[in-house]
Amino acid sequence: MKSINDTLNKIRQNGKKAFVAYITAGDPNLNKTVELVETISEAGADIIELGVPFSDPLADGPTNQKASERALKQGCHLGGVLESVSKIRQKGIETPIVLFSYMNPLFRFGFGELSRRCREVGVNGLLPVDLTPESFLEEERHFKNALEKERIEPIFLMAPTTKTSRWKLIEKETKGFIYYVSRTGTTGVSDKLSEGLLGKLKEVRKVVKKPLIVGFGLSKSEQVKTLAPYCDGIVVGSAIVREIETAKNFKEAKKNTHSLVTKLKESLI
Amino acid sequence: MNPNSRGFYGQYGGSYIPETLSAPIEEIKEAFEKFKNEESFQADLSYWQKEYIGRATPLTYAERLTHFLGGPKIYLKREDLTHTGAHKINNTLGQILIAKRMGKKRIIAETGAGQHGVAVATVCALFGLSCTIYMGEDDTKRQRLNVYRMKLLGASVRPVTLGSRTLKDAINEAMRDWVTNIKNSYYLLGSALGPHPYPQMVTEFQSIIGREVKEQILKKEGRLPDQLIACVGGGSNAIGLFHPFLEDKDVSLIGVEAGGFGIKEKRHSARFEGGSVGIFQGTKTVILQDQFGQIEETESISAGLDYAGIGPLHCYLKEMGRAKYTYATDEEAMNAFSILSKMEGIIPALESSHAIAYIIKEAAHLSKDKIIVCNLSGRGDKDVETAILYSSKEEVNN
User: Fold this and answer.
1) How confident is the model over B181-221, as pLDDT tens digits?
2) Which residue in the set A57, A130, A162 is minimally distant from B23, CB to CB?
3) CATH superfamily of the domain spanning A4-268
4) Is B214 a catalytic residue?
């Protein structure tokens, strides 16, 4: 299994950009999540983010909220998500996997047990959406210790509102990459890149050396093409989730996500 | 009692937020720290508290209720007599004065029963700020009078149709709006909840309740009361009453949660009956959740208590043994609603009725020489429709 770091370094050395694909685990159910991960990997995703469904996803827009609701109705929970990662690895899929989660399901599972299970089943990284690096270093330092012990890579967000004085702290605490939030707002598709984004990325790039992956709102080839020179890769989430939601059946969902990932990945190069 | 520099009361509190909110939360924290001790801010606050809210509110001796129950002397702190009819306005006034000083032009808020929403819409009208209120769709139905009041006051009311369509979903949606419109908007949270500094800030602005009670009871009785009682949803009216008495160890503090249809039936909102520590809507606190950390749906006849989390300071007070918490069911609250109306000519809010219900249950166990103060956090006009519905269902069942 490849680490996030090695994967991204290799992509960088080859002068290429990384494509990160997000789907909500358990949407439409966990067995299908395994199949979708396989499809998305084949289509060229370099890293896969699996959203852990949560009842109150306050950083998510309507598309991912509904996906989370569908997954919860199927009885999907963190333990099940970890098992499905194990199945993905059994199929020989080596693409690095990051769990994107709100804190409460992680906290409830227990940080020690969670980190051990992540290592066992082959999860590479964890992105706690509602945790700042400050809390990670202080009140939740046992979380940090547990992840370090099992060599699971924590990933932190950086936003357009993030103060310059905190850039270095975020870079220090994030291990795989810095997830740069492209705009103020929730997850979800938008037509345009937010104003000032490219300038912001240039500034951040001067200070921050770790891989910079941009996400939130991306769905179009033109957006991806414009962004590529300013970062190390991009995340596409809601646009893929929407393909799964609107497909007539699962076969079509796989076909459509495959072609969307292929198309956007090509625009990156 | 203040939280530590990172917003914790013991293990409870803190700030668990998406990165985009880090800077705006920090900005509010700095503004609150700066203004709360400034003389001109305090003068402004006192002026509006007196001239607009109508403070100080009376501390009414409930003589007939006292005799009827045959126990301790019962005083009611009359937050129902504030402008807009509930304690919520104490907090919205304080926060709007901060938002104004921060130069914010647009206010966002959530509301459950609609009392906070009305209080926000009111101060926005007073100071000419644009106002958007999120309210669970179910709550807009059971509190449609308040929806109309908010609109009349110039607010835009957005029903939330996702999730359980109650207070927690309104908070999620308000936070999503905030994250999107950070530059010009201020999120005016209505209870002692959410990320630091909200619990501290709301506690500060609600503590006027307890400070007045202290002064009033000393004047009337020449001594402090034996017991303070308040209902606890998020916990802002309770913490407002309790906070100035925290060091007075002989005054016992009792919070009453919503027992809803029943605790055994798991249809309630009593966090201290079966809840556990978790991280929810920005704070580490006791919440009603399932074994996988999903937030459970709650139930209460009173929309204002129908919430899965509780203010972090209440958890700390419970852990320290400084305050005790119990609950009253829908049935007990409805009974109290009716008794107080008939005994004192005061129609209490269904939220406050939970505190009255506790007194009705427990008065017999306290001797006549004791004094208790109950926070009558709001008036019940908004609940009349719910009461009609409830009694018609009762008739059918009987």
Assistant:
1) 998 999 999 999 999 999 999 999 999 999 999 999 999 99
2) A162
3) Aldolase class I (3.20.20.70)
4) no
